[in-house]
Amino acid sequence: METIQESLPEKSLAVEPLVAASIGTSATPVPARLSLPPKGSCWYCEKPLDSVRRFCGKSCSDSFDEEAEFTR
To answer: I want to staple 61 with a disulfide (CB 3.0 to 4.6 A). Which of 9, 13, 23, 55 is the partner?
Structure first.
């Protein structure tokens, strides 16, 4: 059995979850929409948004993912 200190990751190896997912360390594929930077409008329908969101709603994000699957 390992000690608590051995089971905790080192601080130098700490990575944000989205960055770790984009590196490909997990077995699940990363949706293409997570790699998009916010641009002030919806990436699917171009509706104006704030500077944080990428899509105006779930329907646009789902449609974007569906379209990305077919254009691979």
So the answer is: 55
